[in-house]
Every structure is written in C-alpha cells, then in structure tokens.
Amino acid sequence: MNRDDQVTEARTFKALRISLASPEDILSWSYGEVTKPETINYRRLRPEKDGLFCEAIFGPTRDYQCYCGKYKGIRYRGIICDKCGVEVTRAAVRRERMGHITLAAPVAHIWYTRRIPSHLSVLLDITKRNLDRVLYFAQYIVISIDEDARQRALKRIDEEEQARIQRMEEAARARMEELEARIDERKRAQEEAVAELKASFEEELNTRTEKILAEAKRLQERLEGMMGRATESPIVFAPTDTVIVEAEEVVSRDHYAVLNAVAQDALEALEKEIERRQQEALAAVSEEQPEELEDVSQIMAQVQQELGEKVAIIRRHYGDLREELLGLAELQLFNEQRYRELRQRWGQVFKAGMGAEAIYELLKKIDLQALSDELWHEVRFGRSAQRRKRATRRLRVVKALLKSRNRPEWMILTVLPVLPPELRPMVQLDGGRFATSDLNDLYRRVINRNNRLKRLLELGAPEVIINNEKRMLQEAVDSLIDNSQRGKSMSRRGRRLLKSLSDLL
Hints:
Elements: H1 3-11, H2 23-29, E1 30-33, E2 40-41, E3 46-47, H3 55-58, E4 98-108, H4 119-124, H5 128-135, E5 140-145, H6 147-225, E6 235-237, E7 242-245, H7 254-288, H8 296-327, E8 333-334, H9 336-346, E9 350-353, H10 355-364, H11 368-381, H12 385-404, E10 412-418, E11 426-428, E12 434-436, H13 438-459, H14 463-481, H15 501-504
Parallel strand pairs: 1-4
Antiparallel strand pairs: 2-3, 4-10, 5-8, 5-9, 6-7, 11-12
C-alpha cells in the first residue's frame, strides 16, 4: 500500500471498535517484553535495552540502521542484528509495533470493574462494593467448594459427635455406679480435708500475726531511741512496705500513732486475706466433691442432669459446625479473621482468595451457554420481580460475551500491552530538558511495581507483603488505563493529574 492509499484509508475511516483481547492476542501483537522502566540513556540519548523505548522491541530510531551501528543501509533490510537484536527496517514501524508486560499477578481491567454498570459485578452477581473489596485485598472470596471433601467432613462430624456423647454416657454410668459405694468415704475425706485446711490457715494466721507484731515492736523501740532526732534513711514497716518516717524527718509522738495504725491495718488485711483464701480453698474442695449431697438419689439425679446439659451443648456445638460447613458457598465473602478461622477448620473443603487472581479463577469456570440458559429460565419463570430484574441484567452481559465470542476471564489482565513509543513520545527541549508523554510515567510505575512483586515472590515474602504489592500493582494498572476512575489519581509530583489511555481515547 502506497502513501496515497494510506491517506485515502485514513480519510474514509468512520469508526473504531474497542473490544476484549485474549492474552494470546496481546502476545501476538507484541514484538517483545518490556522489563525495565527506563526510557532513554540521557548521556547517549539512545533508548535503553528492554525499556519503554527499546529498539529491539519497537524498531530502530533511524531508518535502516540497527542500535549498535553494525548494519546501516537499505540493503540490510529485514536482517536482525546478532549483536543488538534490532531489525534493520524503517523507523516508522515505531508507530505500530507494540510490546507487552507479563504481569506477576493478574489485575482487573478497570473499565469492567469501576464504571457503571460494573460488568464484572453484574456477571458474578455480587455488588460493586464487594467486588472492590476483593480486588483491593480487603476481603476473601470463596472460589470453589470440594463437595466430596464436604461430605467427608460431615461424616467426620457425625462420628465425632456420637463418639463424644457415647464416652460421656459411659463415664456418667460408671460414676453413678460408684456413688453409693463411695459416698460415705468421700464425705469423710471432705471433712478431713476441710479440717486440715482450717488448721493450716489458722497456723499461717498465727505465724504471720506474730511476725507483724514483732516488726511493730521493733520499730516502736527504734522510734523511742530516735525520738526528737532526724532519720538518715526512711523507716519502713516491712510487712507492707509502708514508710513510717521519711528520710531526714524528725521522729515525734505522731509516728507512734502512724505505726499503730499501719500495724492494725496489716493485721486486718491479713485476717481478710486468710479468710478469703480459706473460703476459696473450701469452695474448691466443695466443687471437687459434688458427692457431698446428702441423698444418693439426689446425687444421681444431678449427674443425670449434668449429662443431659453436656450432651445438649455437644449437639449444639456440632450442629453449629454442620450448619457452618453446609453454609460454605462460592462467591461468599470473609474478612481476614473469619477466613483464618474457617481455613483452620475446613481448609480441605473450600478454596478462597483475594485480588484479581481469585476473580480470574471464578471467571474461568463460567460456562456462558449454561449460564445463559439458566438466566433465561429465571427471567421467564422466576417468581420474584427483583430476581428477574437481576437475571435480566446478567443475561445481557452473558449474551454480549457469547455474541462477541469473548471469554469473561479476558476482563482480567495477565499480559499488559505496551503502546508503540511514537504514540507516547519523548521530546528533547531547549536546554537539554525532555518533555514526555504521561503514559511513560504510568507505564514506569506499572513496571517498577511488577518487578518488585516478582522479586518478593522469588524471595518467598510473607503473604501480607505480597498482597500489598499486588494491590499496588492493581492500582498502577488502574491509573494507566483510566486515571480518573481511581479514588486517589496519580499525578506528577503532586501537580496535575496524569493523562491515561482512556483520556487519550
């Protein structure tokens, strides 16, 4: 096609269609992977290899001349330099050749998540708010349920419940058979234990009382010996660490009253402490000996009642577990704490995840034709008007995907296309400064975060750090595609907002 044909074609151009592209399509458009965020070398003013202006990917900057200069001239057209990897061709190809970025983690396309209506939320039948929580790592979403594992877990619950109840019933029977023979012996043992406890606490009370009185007497004699004189160091009542006379304070008759009051308080506190401990010990003995009931029939009735209560608690506990297990379903949302609890109990039954990766797995499982038939049936025969309305909205999206032969998981990006460099130029100004397209800044942030995430994955970083990096990568791609849709749009050094791909379109 000659230049005149190109001009004619441009003038007769009427419309532009934007549609989903599969990762394979994006890779087929690409001439190489962009792995570095650099644009040009500012000393040599030449594009950096594997960067956003790489000649090996996008073509030479000079007609029919490779990067290293080994091949120059039209006679080498089509040759790929074995030294620098640049194809010898026209520089105009830099207007059409695309590159790609292989993302370390899938990211959602913001056109299908943040705009109204949100096609992803409609297709998955979840609210836009909940979709955002999953995509930006605030909540987990259930991806799949293993029904076989669920049935095995239910069977295990039934077996554990029956085993525990059986053990409790056997223990209760043995205890009740033992009661009549041992009731008198247990009562005597309890009485002896109570007597020993009381004697022990009485002895402790006497011993500690004597120590308090002896200390009070010693301090009283010391006060008498220092009457009217200043003390070099504080005089302290040791049992309670109470200061009677401060350092360098003159001893007076008032200190006798202080000492007496402190000693009296110590004695009262000691009596209360001994009484409290004695009551606790006696209560503990009483609790350990439920057989102290006077009548054997009453004891047996109590044992039977306790057995019934414990069995009810066990049945309620396992009933809650059974209900929780049966309640697990796809698209269910959990916060971090709830997810940890459920994974510990039912980790083999369900699989949950966060971010675009979880949404990607959900979308891959969708059978569009089967879903279309199901929604059509709901629209025609559904009893609830609200459910019919929701089914109609979902059906429109499903029909559109079927008609365009697109897969829903293509709304999640695993490979990001990079525009030709001539569509996001970098121009040198007077004074050696450069003016660059905003897209280069946005691409640079994506590459930096993508490379950082790759390094963290290779190092095996903790999950919380990995998730944070994935969220930042999602935000960087969001800003690249449509910077106006994010809550916190990217700007250059806090000034004007950067123009994204959507702004250029």
